[in-house]
Each structure stands twice: as C-alpha cells, then as structure tokens.
Design a protein that fits this description.
about 120 residues, alpha+beta, 4-stranded mixed beta sheet, two-stranded antiparallel ribbon, 6 strands, elongated
Length: about 120
C-alpha cells in the first residue's frame, strides 16, 4: 500500500468515557486509565449487504461498536467532524476507510456514576 492509497483518510476524535472501571482479569481487577490511540476502520467490509438508505447511519453505529470493543466503555461520543466525513458522500456512498483517534477520558462531573 504505502502512499498509493486511493481513498481519503480522515482523522477525527471519538471521546470514550468509561462506565465500567475495568475488566476483571484472572489475577484480579484491572483499572482503566486515560489513553489515546489511532485506528483505521475499514467501513467497506462492514457495509456488505446493507441496503443503500441505511448505510451511513449503520456506519455510525459500527464505529460506536468498534470503540466500545477497543475502549471498554459504554459512553461513546462521536465528533461532528467524523460524522460529517461519513456523510460527506451521501447516505449510500461511504468512504471505504476512516482514520479515527479514540480517547478514553476521565469524567469531569463529580456526581457521575462513572469515574472515566
């Protein structure tokens, strides 16, 4: 691949605020820490056999699901720039891949149930 990629890559922020403080490991519990990682999500393979008028909303849900799996959080917020990029070609013609930056942040509300 290298620099010969025919698709546009868009980096946008997804804020993931943790609702569960960690996964229980065999040796005990693991605490979640604030972290930021970059990923490429291949939307094209996730949209096989999805009817045209449901592709962009489904892509947003798939990005949410991807973030949930990687960041172990329930509270996922998608940046407006990422949403605009997904919808940039209309409801049917999605970008094939999208670069995203996932950030797990601490929750600033004192009365919130979640610490992250």
């Amino acid at each position: 691949f290298g620099s010969r990629l025919p698709f546009a890559l868009q980096t946008a922020d997804i804020l993931a605020l943790s609702t569960n403080m960690g996964k229980v490991a065999k040796s005990g519990s693991k605490k979640l820490e604030p972290v930021t990682r970059d990923y490429t999500i291949h939307l094209h393979k996730l949209m096989h056999k999805i009817q045209f008028k449901k592709r962009a909303p489904r892509a947003v849900r798939e990005i949410r699901k991807f973030t949930l799996k990687r960041m172990f959080t329930k509270d996922v917020r998608i940046d407006t720039k990422l949403n605009k990029f997904i919808w940039s070609n209309g409801v049917r013609n999605l970008p094939r891949r999208v670069r995203v930056r996932l950030s797990r942040k601490r929750n600033e509300d004192e009365d919130a149930k979640e610490k992250m």
